[in-house]
Amino acid sequence: MEIRFINQSQEKRWNNYRNYLKPILSKTVKRLSVEKEVALSVILTEDAEIHAINQTYRNIDRPTDVISFAMEEGESSGIDFDVRELGDIFINVNAVVRQSAEYGHSLKREFCFLFTHGLLHLLGYDHLDVAEEEKMFALQEEILLEIAKR
User: Tens of pLDDT along 22-63?
Assistant: First the structure.
């Protein structure tokens, strides 16, 4: 299990949050019975950078809280690698601060929620309709239950 952690924000305090990633990833791959070793990147960014990413890749002209880029979208190359490369998760630390205050919970909870949300997107989950959203959000709560309680 490999997590490449890149803090592009202006605040070094976010470096400590890398400690929450492996427990979430471990619980998720176990819960979903992911058989291969996995690898992914987590990039911490701020409003301006994630706004530019959102504009460029999603054609949405505003910042967002988390964006995932899955490596497994589209057709498989047919090559069987030892490690399953999941992709990249961009987390907006400005949104972590805003949303934790808005929802009345800790920075840890919001950071872990956004990482879990992005991770589930990398693993093929989505929330385009009510049924998908209920399934994805219930799974997020299950994963976070003992790691980052509300």
Answer: 999 999 999 999 988 999 999 999 999 999 999 999 999 999
Q: Report CA-CA distances (Å) from 83 to 3, 13, 87, 109.
A: 12, 30, 12, 29
Tell me the backbone φ, ψ of residue 19, rounded to 5 degrees. -65, -20
- Say if residues 88 and 120 touch (Cβ distance below 8 Å): no
| Long-range pairs, 47-53, Cβ under 8 A, ≥24 | 47/92, 47/94, 47/95, 49/8, 49/90, 50/90, 50/92, 50/95, 53/90
C-alpha span between 86 and 31 (Å, rounded):
16
Query: Residue 100 has which token pair?
Result: 């934790």
H or E element, residue 73: none
Architecture, CATH, for domain 2-144: 3-Layer(aba) Sandwich (3.40)
Are the C-beta atoms of 127 and 68 separated by less than 8 Å?
no
CB 41 within 8 A of CB 85: no
Residue-wise pLDDT tens digits, 110-119: 999 999 999 9
